[in-house]
Amino acid sequence: MFKFHVEEELSCKIEGNGKFIAKKGAMVAFKGNFKFDKMLLGPENGAGAMGALIGLARRKLTGENIQLMTVEGSGTIYLAINAYHVSVFELEPGDCLSVESENLLAFPIDIKYDVRFIGSGVLSQKGLATTVLHNTTNQLQQVAVITDGNPLMLEGPCVVDPDALVAWTSSPNGGGDPSVATNNFSWKTVIGQTSGESYQFQFSQPNQLVLVQPSERLSGLKVRVD
Q1: What is the predicted pLDDT for the residue at 119?
Q2: Cα–Cα distance list, 125 to 9, 95, 97, 114 (Å)
Q3: What is the pTM of this model?
Q4: Does residue 225 form part of some domain?
């Protein structure tokens, strides 16, 4: 079994033996013996070839698809992407973590990986779906996440910019997913003539963890006015 640790804020140090899944190309150094294999379909464990194909199609459709690799071996390995900051979530049995797919760095091979529609965020790169990691095992599991800048960890209830949102703790049935809070939404929002804070994601569950990065993705809606 591998243990994840944040190393110097900008890398993830992973120690142990076995197999885990990581963002393709994230390895920067290692000590020991490791083998790296690109995942051609996806990490839907136990779903079979057809289930993996359906999962791949769903991720491509929702924009939640990223290139992943399996890492197998023993020793110590360091992962990093573009000097992004690293955070490690610890999931107790039954816990779920919803995360923007592009911010995933590494997670255990036996954690359940899926895409769930959240039905909000139509004007944001966050989109209508989220990647969900569900700890269906009987032991603690860790997930490494990257952020563009030193992240801010909030406890719910709270309101965040959807373009800065990275991850949040949730439940398997979608409990804890955000709702959209609007502030004077009008035609000005569509053409970009507002303050830029016309809608937000609202998290209502007390003590829910919400990870936000100090940089915003470009808006998913582009309207040209000549």
Answers
A1: 54
A2: 26, 25, 19, 19
A3: 0.79
A4: no
